[in-house]
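User: structure tokens for this one?
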Amino acid sequence: MYEYVGNIHVHSTYSDGSGTVEDIALAAEKAGLDFVIITDHEKLTGRLEKKNGWHGKTLVLIDTELNRDDHHYLAFNLKEEINTRGLSPQEVIDTVNQAGGFGIIAHPFEKGSPIILKGKHYPWSQWGVKDFLGIEIWNYTSLCRDAATSTLKALWLYYFAHRSAARYPCRFSIKKWDEFLTQGNKVFAMGGTDAHAVRFRWKGLNINFFPYEYLFKTINTHVLLHEKFSQEGRYDSQLIYQALCRGHYHTSNDGIMPSTGFRFTAENEEKQGISGDHIPLDKETALEVRSPTSRSRIRIIKDGQVISESQNSHLILKVLEKGAFRAEVYYRPLVGKARPWIYSNPIFII
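Assistant:
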């Protein structure tokens, strides 16, 4: 497998971000990313202007975030813009699927801040929907904004303690994800930065809230491909979309340390698989987790419960029953509590 690292959920000057597509591509390359996915609100302008593709060493994919006023939905692999204003959340999902795309529910439990946008926020409240691909469990900007409950707190978070503001993924999103998996639904998890790199002046200061390059070193997506990038933009973009659709990726806070090399696999007498795959249950079926560092706490989760745990870089679990199994890795620093680091997609034992 070939591992490539990218950042998902990014906004440019085509909506409410401060950087052009070219600015974002350069920041992504400086941050060492292999790809970046721009998701401007209800627009595919950058794609229509043919700005997607390779920019230096970074592949730029241009997608969109639908529903400006409520129930935000990240839509991928659309060939043209679609109008979803006035549609219900289920109708939005259906429209994206019918257009040949797929989607992720964005920042579903965000609370907003009384000092930012007058408390305006965009949670997802209609959970009777179906046929969406996944749910965003870790949105860096949204979590930081939720923590900014006062001006003083905002300044403290953004200039001194911002790493701790999004230190944990949204626990409500994790719980909802586990509920879907327990009910037998195939739902993947995704993390994003929701990068805007907002710039403004305040009392003579030029402030840039979370520059792109900084955010591109935080909540990232590591995809696994069966072949190397060809350097042909359209073909390589489809490789990324296929990996996302299959759940062949994990989400991590690379601000702790890069998670390259993490693997969550399953194997039995007949088949091998990675996160997102279906593996039949037999007497030899086992799960294996490998972390890039021994300073790890590895957990395997089923039905929202920890069923196996290791304080090392390696864990093997023989599987005795069917279900959706996912892996988490916490990083254990020399001092302090273990920190959430890596979240895999589930492997489905059938």
